[in-house]
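Ticket #4471: structure output looks truncated?

Reporter: J.K.
Steps to reproduce: submitted the chain below (142 residues) through the standard prediction queue, then opened the result file.
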Amino acid sequence: IGAAVFVLAILVLEYVQVKSNALEKFITGKSKVVIENGQLDIKQLKKLRLTIDQLEMRLRNHGVAKLEHVKSATIEPNGQLGYELKESEKPLTIGEFKNLMNLYFPHLAQQLENSPPSDTGTQKDLFQEINYPKTDTPRYLQ
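Returned output as attached by the reporter:
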């Protein structure tokens, strides 16, 4: 009976959070901005009892080398760190690379689009089993 009451209470709380934004903020909280426009918010860090070293550690765990590379960062209600890099520090995407190739080397970009993809032969497609399931079971599993 106790487990059923507990599960029911969780379901009711989840339903209430979905239906009411104010109650969601009250129950789970909201994100706290710790870096805004590249500037640390020391007052917010003190409220969260988070040192600059701990913030830097979390950023390093996400692959950010320097604090100056971060445009904004938040501590989410679940304790996770969310961040956005400055424009000059964001990695180059394949789409941006293709646009640059088309802009500066249109002939080369067209040639690369028309060429067949190179097959190394040794690399296996990770999704091959999902996309093309085998019907026979390996002998050692029978």
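Triage note (M.O.): checked the attachment and the full token line is present. The helical segments are 2-19, 21-28, 42-47, 52-61, 94-104, 106-114, 128-131.
Status: closed, working as intended.
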